Known about the structure:
Oligomer: single chain
Helix content: 40-55%
Largest sheet: 5 strands, parallel
Strand content: 15-25%
Radius of gyration: 21 Å
Mean pLDDT: 88
Distance between the termini: 83 Å
Strand order of the largest sheet: 6-5-7-8-9
Number of helices: 10
Shape: globular
Order of helices and strands: HEEEEEHHEHEHHHEHHEH
Structural class: alpha/beta
Low-confidence stretches: 184-202
Amino acid sequence: MNRWKYVVLSIGxxxxxxxxxxxxxxxxxxxxxxxxxxIGYIPAPSQSGKFLNKNDxxxxxxxxxxxxxxxxxxxxxxxxxxxxxVQGGNPYRxxxxxxxxxxxxxxxEYRVWxxxxxxWGFLNEKEYLDRHPEVMPGLDGLIWVFNSGDxxxxxxxxxxxxxxRSRPLLLSYYVLNKYVxxxxxxxxxxxxxxxxxxxxxxxxxxxxxxxxxLSNELQALQSHPLKYKIIVFYPDKGEFSxxxxxxxxxxxxxxxxxxxxxxxxFIDIRTLPEWKSEYYRDQIHPTPxxxxxxxxxxxxxxxxxxxxx
Length: 309
């Protein structure tokens, strides 16, 4: 009996030390998400924190990645819309992300409002616009960031490991599950998690439907007096390295055609001579230096539009 008591006490002590360790390290200071069947998931509004006690993050009352509540003003208000390329995520400090870097370059005359979530697609982003009709009337511009995975059905919530809905009671187990168990699953079967979320990922018919939806959305946005209308198409590391990629070229040309048909500026990041493989932190997300290149290019397009008007 004493032996089992010793075992139980040892396990309890180990769990207690682990909890203190992961909580002290700031591993539990991450954003939480709200979920439903239409938008899939979205950062809960009005929250902030500092992952690993250094990577600060914040979301306002509209789940936008800034501390200030959404309130259009006499400044040029720009909505920066996309997925994790816009959100940034836990590995970055707030000032390293695309929205804050673009804000710093544009200066006080502009106000950048970034909104995005990891693995969002076109339909998730459109749903955000649809359920927040109060956002568009106050805007002077929309900067929409796409990649080749954005037209494969809407992303749906699947696991708390990637989109936690609440603070875990036992953080040490959550960290073990996220970074070891599910992390190994992603390494061994990199397409499995997305397949579970989106069985229609390889359906060209579904992709055609979403392109039609994009065309309709761009036409519908004509009713808003937007001065700045910019679409950014961003390649992952493999697409950038492989310059002979018919599928990527097809997507890029089709989005460009729809953009220009509706009066939007379009830029394919793969065509930038200054863009390099070293600007990828992983297979798709930029380094802070990569975000700097992106923000400078977007700034150039904003200035180009300003000069033309």
